[in-house]
Amino acid sequence: MTTRSKTPVRRLRRDAQANRDRIVAAARLAFAADGVDVPVEEIARRAAVGMGTLYRHFPAKEDLIDAVLEDVFAAFIAAAEQALAEEDAWAGFRGFLERVFALHMENRGVKDIIATRAHGRGRADAMRLRIRPLLRRLIERAQEQGALRSDFTTEDMPLVLWTGGRVIEATAAVAPELWRRYLGLLLDGLRAEAATPLPHPPLTRAQLKRATGRSS
Asked: Which pTM does this prediction carry?
């Protein structure tokens, strides 16, 4: 009697894990191709599960985004850490942007979670907290070495990623490597020796939050 009562439970748990894995895999492909605004109904369809099954595993879409995009944050953080390990701060700064734009080419979810709106719950928030000081130090090092214009701020970085993402999305189908030209033009404009006074101050942290729809 005891053995018979346990066997179905284990089978259900295996089935539940398989369903969860299919949902996450389907969401990962959908987010990479189309961004995080893909409807959960479409993800359920691709995973061949019902909406009830999807919601049992992920009560809110943010929970699913958290599960799928953690690896995107990890790659972003790894790019920043690699850049900070460079002795030449400008080379690190340039390499960081190159790696992040290349990530965007592979996964449209990059822009959605890093540069525009707040997505994800606990894990995503924790990763953002890790990213901010890395970006700040990346900028400070390049400025301390006299390579990056002194008026570039941490609040400017999301806008760089945002505009770069728009270039990538607009040209990916016709000239998938054009983002490299855009980045070259951008970097020339960010060099300290090319700097001229800017006509407008950077966004404040509060303004950036409002512009990107973030709450933290």
From this structure: 0.74
